[in-house]
């Protein structure tokens, strides 16, 4: 027996675990998340690059090039995609899963997570993509027993081997997918329970380094690490588009935390879970090296996301492969859907009522009436952050609508008490960048009501007048009103938690791009004007 143990010791292993004299083990991880169909260059603020200058960053050819450059430097790296490869540019609208799998398969992924947007065309739109992918797709908290088209197309975890060590990778998808997308009868279970179950199974198999590939969002990842992370070493995240970075971000974006963030699990204060995420849209790519001891315990780390600006070259072969598809996409983007007599600028929406906000809010009200009854008075709300581009005077194209609303969010109707509407509008004018004149990040654009603010008053007491439509009837805090809004906002996004708290009788009535396109077609030429529905006094 001693002879056998000695032979194992020479090889550096006993019972699948590394021995003390082996030295530190280095695990290299290349990761990205929330690709969102960025096959061409993007910019910090818009889905496509409008000008051929240094504002153009990212894109698949640059991502591909940098991944392969890092693999040449660190050939044992693990390459991970944390989900949401679908949706976000006209490429996906036109070409769907097929072009996505073609180019994703050119990157030597070790694993993909599933994002909520992967279900935007239902299980039937996802199944052929999963069948075509070469790398395994991981989802430990997803039950497809009632959607057999997806059975056998994903697994909860994999075990990789790098330099003789076993590396476990567990996949998670946000349980909010049921509300955010179109998963049919797919059920999404508690990510914490799934993490514990799969991590314990891997640990029993002698896997002492475990990575969680999560499309649950940064805040959820921290909770998972805290409550279920005793066997988890690293969480590679996505979904929340969080930039974790050390120092000031070169893109000028808000940094949500250092790279990596460290979380201590509640049940094991001697253990630390490292959390990383790399923004979104191929603007950044994660580059992490973690050193472990013989027990699989973290010792030290190196790395930071890489900013994929024009200092990083694009792969020209990949650009040539993309060119025929790009031609089709650009032709489709330029199809006219209507016209406008005036320019509607999205930047105006930080100051108060804006014409493009009126367009979007009015379109949602009209759609809600068409979907239900024209006798119902609807109010609509859309958050400033959901309005991503201007519409210029002249022809309005399919592509310009997509630029305006790139995420093609669902829109729902619901009932809600007036007090929650008042709370939402009060939140609309807090945390301003400036108050005289007003300039703020959360300002809601509205239809079906009129509001006047005095922003010199204390927060949550700034509404001086709030009336229903043109009736002069004041909003009643205890009365039930009918509302339509993008699902992201209705579910409490951007801090508007009062909508999520108060809404009931919810119903999905379509997607924002289609709603706005139909409104523009039926009302062209547009001549949207300001009408005093939002007044801000300083």
Keywords:
5'-nucleotidase,  domain 2, 14 helices, seven-stranded mixed beta sheet, alpha/beta, Purple Acid Phosphatase, chain A, domain 2, 2 domains
Topology overview:
Elements: H1 2-11, E1 13-14, E2 17-18, E3 25-32, H2 60-73, E4 78-81, H3 90-104, E5 111-113, H4 122-132, E6 137-138, E7 142-143, E8 157-162, E9 165-173, H5 177-180, E10 187-188, H6 191-204, E11 209-215, H7 218-228, E12 234-237, E13 261-263, E14 273-276, E15 284-292, E16 298-303, E17 306-307, H8 316-333, E18 336-340, H9 355-371, E19 378-383, E20 394-397, H10 398-404, E21 410-417, H11 418-427, E22 434-435, E23 438-439, E24 444-447, E25 449-454, E26 463-468, E27 473-474, E28 480-486, H12 487-490, H13 497-502, E29 504-511, H14 512-523, E30 534-537
Parallel strand pairs: 3-4, 4-5, 5-6, 9-11, 11-12, 12-14, 19-28, 25-30
Antiparallel strand pairs: 1-2, 3-15, 7-10, 8-9, 13-14, 15-16, 15-17, 18-20, 19-24, 21-28, 21-29, 22-23, 25-26, 26-27
Helix pairs in contact: 3-4, 3-8, 6-7, 9-14
């Amino acid at each position: 027996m001693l002879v056998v143990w000695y032979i194992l010791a020479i090889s550096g292993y006993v019972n699948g675990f590394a021995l003390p004299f082996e030295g530190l083990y280095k695990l290299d991880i290349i990761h990205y998340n929330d690709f969102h169909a960025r096959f061409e260059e993007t910019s910090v603020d818009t889905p496509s690059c409008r000008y051929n200058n240094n504002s153009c960053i990212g894109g698949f050819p640059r991502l591909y090039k940098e991944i392969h450059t890092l693999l040449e430097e660190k050939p044992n790296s693990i390459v991970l995609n944390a989900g949401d490869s679908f949706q976000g540019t006209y490429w996906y609208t036109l070409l769907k899963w097929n072009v996505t799998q073609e180019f994703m398969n050119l990157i030597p992924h070790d694993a993909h997570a599933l994002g909520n947007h992967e279900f935007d065309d239902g299980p039937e739109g996802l199944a052929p993509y999963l069948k075509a992918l070469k790398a395994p797709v991981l989802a430990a908290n997803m039950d497809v027993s009632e959607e057999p088209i997806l059975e056998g197309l994903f697994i909860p975890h994999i075990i990789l081997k790098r330099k003789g060590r076993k590396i476990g990778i567990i996949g998670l998808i946000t349980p909010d997918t049921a509300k955010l997308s179109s998963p049919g009868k797919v059920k999404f279970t508690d990510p914490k329970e799934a993490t514990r179950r799969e991590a314990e199974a891997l640990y029993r198999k002698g896997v002492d380094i475990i990575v969680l590939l999560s499309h649950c969002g940064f805040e959820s990842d921290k909770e998972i690490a805290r409550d279920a992370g005793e066997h988890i070493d690293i969480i590679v995240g996505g979904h929340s588009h969080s930039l974790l970075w050390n120092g000031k971000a070169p893109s000028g974006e808000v940094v949500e935390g250092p790279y990596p963030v460290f979380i201590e699990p509640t049940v094991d204060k001697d253990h630390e879970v490292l959390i990383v995420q790399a923004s979104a849209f191929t603007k950044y790519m994660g580059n992490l090296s973690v050193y472990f001891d013989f027990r699989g315990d973290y010792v030290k780390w190196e790395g930071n996301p890489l900013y994929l600006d024009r200092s990083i070259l694009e792969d020209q072969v990949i650009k040539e492969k993309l060119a025929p598809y790009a031609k089709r996409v650009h032709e489709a983007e330029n199809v006219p859907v209507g016209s406008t007599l005036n320019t509607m600028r999205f930047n105006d929406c930080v100051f108060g009522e804006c014409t493009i906000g009126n367009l979007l809010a009015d379109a949602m009200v009209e759609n809600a009436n068409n979907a239900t009854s024209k006798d119902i008075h609807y109010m609509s709300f859309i958050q400033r952050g959901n309005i991503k581009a201007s519409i210029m005077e002249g022809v309005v194209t399919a592509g310009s609508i997509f630029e305006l609303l790139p995420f093609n969010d669902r829109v729902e109707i619901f009932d809600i008490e007036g007090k929650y509407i008042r709370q939402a509008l009060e939140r609309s004018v807090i945390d301003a960048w400036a108050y005289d004149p007003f300039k703020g990040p959360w300002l809601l654009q509205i239809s079906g009501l009129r509001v006047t603010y005095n922003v010199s008053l204390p927060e949550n007491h700034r509404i001086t007048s709030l009336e229903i439509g043109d009736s002069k009837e004041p909003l009643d805090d205890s009365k039930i009103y009918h509302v339509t809004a993008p699902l992201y906002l209705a579910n409490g996004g951007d801090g508007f938690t009062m909508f999520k708290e108060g809404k009931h009788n919810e119903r999905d009535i379509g997607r924002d791009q289609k709603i706005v396109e139909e409104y523009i077609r039926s009302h062209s030429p547009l001549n949207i004007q300001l009408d005093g529905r939002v007044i801000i006094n300083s």
